[in-house]
Structures are given as C-alpha cells and as structure tokens.
Amino acid sequence: MTPSRADEGSGSVLVLAVAAATMLVCGLLLPLYMGLAAKRQIAGAADAAALAAADGLSGAVPGVPCELAGQVAALNTAAVASCEVAGTEVIVVTVGEVLGLPVQAAARAGPPG
After folding, report:
1. Cβ distance 90 to 84 under 8 Å?
2. How much is the mean pLDDT over the chain?
3. pLDDT digits (tens, 9 = 90+) for 14-29
4. Distance of CA 102 to CAs 42, 78, 107, Å?
5. Cys-Cys link to 42, which of 11, 53, 56, 96 (CB 3.0-4.6 A)?
6. Residue 75 forms beta bridges with which residues?
7. What is the chain's alpha carbon radius of gyration, rounded to the nearest angstrom?
C-alpha cells in the first residue's frame, strides 16, 4: 500500500503544533518560576537582615539593630517593611517586587537557646 497524497506534510504540521504547545507552556511557567525565585530571594534577605539585627542587639556588631537590618536587606535587593525588637529577639519583615507584584517574607532571630 502506498500512503495517500492527503497525508503529505502532516508530519510538519504535527511538529509545528508540538513546538507551539511547548513554547506556550514555557511562556506560562516562566513567570511562576520567576515569582518562586523572587520569594526565595526576599526570604533570604529577611533571614540575613534578622541575623544582622540580632547581632546588633546582642552587641556583637556595633549599630542600631533595625538600621543594620535595613542595610543588609538593601544589599540583598529588598526593603524592610517592619522591624520589631521583642526582648532579645528581632522580627524583620522584608518586601520586594517581581513582575509588578509585591513579595513579602518574615524572619526572626535572637540568641541561641
């Protein structure tokens, strides 16, 4: 049996459809992954800022705890939304932006034990 002439070129159409579907899926997933990466970056900035503030609070590093938190957050491309000293602990909330949407993370640090 010989293939019908109506089937000629159908492989090319199939390859184009698969390529278009792959590009569509990648285009839809890319912003999601960008958002997840930004959330992790902001969370890391919050952790580092809280640790810096706790070091300032304990006297291990000279400076005002919340000012230290702001400096460290800025170095990590984030901003401090709030900084609260509660006894020997510091709670820092950092914010950032990805694709025009706000991203927020909080961290707490203090002395061990």
Report:
1. yes
2. 91
3. 899 999 999 999 999 9
4. 10, 11, 17
5. 96
6. none
7. 25
**With bands split at pLDDT 50, 70 and 90, how would you rate the model's confidence at 106?**
very high
Q: What's the rounded Cα separation, in Å, for the pair 67 and 69?
A: 5
What does the block give as tokens for 82? 């709030």
Predicted pLDDT of residue 29: 92
d(CA 111, CA 9): 70
CA distances from 10 to 3, 15, 19, 23 (A): 12, 9, 14, 20
- Dihedral pair phi/psi, residue 59, rounded to 5°: 90, 0
Tell whether the model's pLDDT for residue 78 goes beyond 80: yes
User: CB neighbours (10 Å) of residue 74?
Assistant: 14
What is the distance in angstroms between the CA of the first residue and the CA of the last residue of the chain?
81
Separation CA 58–CA 52 (nearest Å): 10
